[in-house]
Every structure is written in structure tokens, then in C-alpha cells.
């Protein structure tokens, strides 16, 4: 990336040692140190046919963040992203992107954002370079320096070797990479990526993640929608989950995982399923588990292991090992597993961690609000891109 386009990294996930920066710090409107790239309060959108696709979305995404917007099919992700990218006018709410109002200052917002839609917009008859030149025209990138910019972007997404090959011969992953590059020709402050890796094989997906990291490491704010929890976990500093057009969780991946419960210790037991069941019975009576206090651990078994799940189960592990060995069991393996984002997602789907974030709490975040200010309500139409 050339120096003139590079920006300093502003707190991407890769900067953090433990990957668990205080979310309260990140989401605070009043943080002060980093302006908000996305600042939406009570965003709502009802389609002309009456479908209430987005009912109440409040988001505060600081510049430089890699933000994941998760939700099941039909939850309202694309609709939200289209409002943020000025392609749809909100029915209600106050929506500012890169410090500008998405309705009143649409042109200014558009000049500062990139948008990669779910469907690739690559022209298959044009080469990679020509596609980027076309995008430069569309975004009004000055002719001066355009060739350098295109070369830089082709490098960024590893397409320099096929720069003059028609995109029609590219794999799905290559087309997505080219599409991502076209969204960056005008060096936007913020890029929206709508399910950018859907339908790609794991290798192609992994490669795209590398490019998204590079983009974010250069300082570009990334707003990503995805159905792949691993994708969000690997890339994002923060994740909001939308369900039925409302935010039901908004936190760092690590804190979301902690919210659904604890770690699981798996103790492999030699001697077959009967021995495993006996070991489980011993553990259920064990003093080691009493120390877990109010968070009663859950014990279950597989064919060859007893699994104990508790908030800090990893800390209990050594005592559990000793208890089993004292009782004469052969413990042949020991592993601690943390909850995954899949666990979070299923728990949210079950409503068990489904409370909207309380932004008035001690963590300094502001209150998520309903549309109490009587925002004007109009039936939106898709705005010309
Ligand atoms: N143009 C439209 N007119 C009417 N309803 C629509 C329109 N586009 C989307 N919807 C509906 O709005 C709701 C939210 O759709 P949206 O595409 O925003 O969800 P999504 O989370 O992006 O889903 P997916 O992951 O399937 O893309 C759904 O019920 C969908 O059927």
C-alpha cells in the first residue's frame, strides 16, 4: 500500500494482546478519543409493502473498528447496511455515517464509504484492471494517480498477476476480492461488506479474511455482515446480533462468549463407558465442585470422557483430576474448551442471552433508545446508487 493511502491503525483486533478490549470503551458515544464512523439511533425501515424489516437499531461504531453485524436470514442485516450506505432512506431514526446525516448529506456520505454488496458487481467481460478503472470513473477518482491506485489495490487483493485477464475466468473467491477492491478505489474511511464470503470455500474465505484484515489494519473502518460466526470471531473487534430488526446483543466476541456461560473441562477416562459413568458419579459428589459456589457446574458424559461445564471450569480442572485419581480412575486426557460464538448465537436464538444491551450501565455506554423523539416516518424507496 502506498504511503499516501496508508492510514494509521486505530485499534483493530490484532492490536490487542488479549483480544478483549473493554467494550464499554469502544461503544461509548462519549469516548471522545475516536469519532464514530457509524452513529445510529432508533434506525427503522419499513418497506413499501409494510414489512418492518428493521424496527429499532442503535449502533455506535468508532472509527477504525472492525465491526460484525450478525443475524439469521431475514433478520434485517442487509436492510440496515443499505440504510447506512444511503441506498435506502430510514423510515425513522437518526442515522449518521462518517459524521454526516445519511439523508440530508447523502453525497458526502457516499464519497467517504465503500460498499460491497452480497452479489458481486464485477463486470465479467472486463479485466480486473478495467473493472477497477470503471469503479474509479464511478467514484470520480481523479485521473492523476489513478493507475498507481489501481496497481496498489490489485496488489492488496493479490490480483496483480491476473490484472489484465477478463474477470469472467476468475474463481468465485477472486471475483469477491476484485469486488472488495472496487469498493476501495476512492480510499473510503469506512467500507461496508455485506456477507462478503457467502458461498465461498474455506480456503477462499480464509484469503478474503486476510484482505479484510489488511484493509482494517490500514485504518479503514470495516462494517461486516455475516452469517459465519467464525468469520465474525476471527475478524471483528465487536459484534452486534440483530434479530427481527432489533439488536439483541452488542459486545466483544470474548464477552459475548462469556455471557453464555462457562468453559467446559473434558476429562478422558480409560476403561470404557461404565468407568466414565462411575467417574461422573464421583465428580458429582466431589468437594471440588462445591467450590464452584452459586454457579452450579453441569456434568455430562461422552463415551470416553466426563465433561464439566462451569463459569471458571478451567480453574477446577486440577482438583477434578486429583479427585478422580484418588478414586482410582485412569484419567488419560484433559482439555478445557471455551464457548464458541455458535453457542452465543444459539443461546440468543433461545432468548437466553437475548436482552438488548443496557447502555445506561456502569460501563459508560449510553442508553439504547426507542424512537421517542417523534422522528418523521416515511415509506422509503430504494435510492439510486
Ligand atoms: N425490497 C423488500 N421489500 C419488502 N420486504 C423486504 C425487501 N427486502 C427485504 N425484505 C424483508 O425484510 C426482512 C429483512 O430482510 P434483510 O434482507 O434485511 O435481512 P438479512 O438479515 O440481510 O437476511 P439475509 O441474510 O437473508 O440477506 C425480511 O423479512 C425480508 O424478507
UniProtKB/TrEMBL annotation:
SMART domains named in the record: AAA
Gene Ontology molecular functions: ATP binding; ATP hydrolysis activity
All residue ranges annotated as the ABC transporter domain in the record: 38-269
One Pfam family, short name: DrrA1-3_C
UniProt cross-references to Gene3D superfamilies, sorted A to Z: P-loop containing nucleotide triphosphate hydrolases (3.40.50.300)
Keyword Metal-binding assigned: no
Membrane spanning stretches: none
Region (Disordered) residue spans: 1-35, 349-385
Record key words, sorted: ATP-binding, Nucleotide-binding, Transport
NCBIfam families attached to this UniProt entry: drrA (TIGR01188)
Membership in a protein family: Belongs to the ABC transporter superfamily. Drug exporter-1 (DrugE1) (TC 3.A.1.105) family.
Name under which the protein is recorded: ATP-binding cassette domain-containing protein
Amino acid at each position: 500500500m502506498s504511503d499516501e493511502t496508508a492510514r494509521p491503525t486505530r485499534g483493530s483486533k490484532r492490536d490487542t494482546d488479549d483480544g478483549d478490549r473493554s467494550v464499554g470503551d469502544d461503544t461509548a458515544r462519549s469516548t471522545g478519543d475516536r469519532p464514530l464512523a457509524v452513529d445510529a439511533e432508533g434506525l427503522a425501515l419499513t418497506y413499501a409493502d409494510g414489512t418492518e424489516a428493521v424496527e429499532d437499531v442503535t449502533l455506535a461504531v468508532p472509527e477504525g473498528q472492525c465491526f460484525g453485524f450478525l443475524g439469521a436470514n431475514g433478520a434485517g442485516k442487509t436492510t440496515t447496511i443499505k440504510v447506512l450506505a444511503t441506498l435506502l432512506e430510514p423510515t425513522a431514526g437518526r442515522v449518521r455515517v462518517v459524521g454526516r446525516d445519511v439523508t440530508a448529506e447523502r453525497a458526502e456520505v457516499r464519497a467517504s464509504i465503500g460498499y460491497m454488496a452480497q452479489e458481486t458487481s464485477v463486470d465479467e467481460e472486463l479485466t480486473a484492471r478495467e473493472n477497477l478503472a470503471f469503479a474509479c470513473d464511478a467514484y470520480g477518482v481523479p485521473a492523476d494517480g489513478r493507475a498507481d491506485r489501481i496497481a496498489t489495490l490489485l496488489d492488496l487483493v493479490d490480483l496483480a498477476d491476473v490484472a489484465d485477464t477478463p474477470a469472467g475466468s476468475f474463481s468465485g473467491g477472486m471475483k469477491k476480492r476484485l469486488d472488495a477492491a472496487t469498493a476501495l478505489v476512492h480510499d473510503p474511511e469506512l467500507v461496508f461488506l455485506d456477507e462478503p464470503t457467502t458461498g465461498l470455500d474455506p480456503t477462499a474465505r480464509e484469503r478474503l479474511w486476510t484482505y479484510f484484515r489488511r484493509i482494517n489494519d490500514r485504518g479503514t473502518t470495516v462494517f461486516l455482515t455475516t452469517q459465519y460466526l467464525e468469520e465474525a470471531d476471527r475478524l471483528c473487534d465487536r459484534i452486534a446480533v440483530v434479530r427481527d430488526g432489533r439488536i439483541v446483543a452488542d459486545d466483544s466476541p470474548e464477552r459475548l462468549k462469556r455471557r453464555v456461560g462457562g468453559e467446559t473441562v473434558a476429562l478422558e477416562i480409560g476403561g470404557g463407558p461404565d468407568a466414565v459413568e462411575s467417574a461422573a458419579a464421583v465428580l458429582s459428589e466431589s468437594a471440588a465442585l462445591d467450590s464452584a459456589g452459586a454457579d452450579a457446574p453441569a456434568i455430562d458424559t461422552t463415551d470416553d470422557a466426563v465433561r464439566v461445564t462451569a463459569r471458571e471450569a478451567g480453574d477446577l480442572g486440577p482438583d477434578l483430576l486429583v479427585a478422580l485419581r484418588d478414586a482410582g480412575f485412569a484419567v488419560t486426557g484433559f482439555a478445557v474448551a471455551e464457548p464458541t460464538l455458535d453457542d452465543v448465537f444459539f443461546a440468543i436464538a433461545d432468548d437466553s442471552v437475548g436482552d438488548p444491551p443496557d447502555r445506561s450501565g456502569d460501563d459508560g455506554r449510553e442508553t439504547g433508545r426507542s424512537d421517542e423523539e417523534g422522528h418523521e416516518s416515511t415509506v422509503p424507496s430504494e435510492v439510486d446508487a
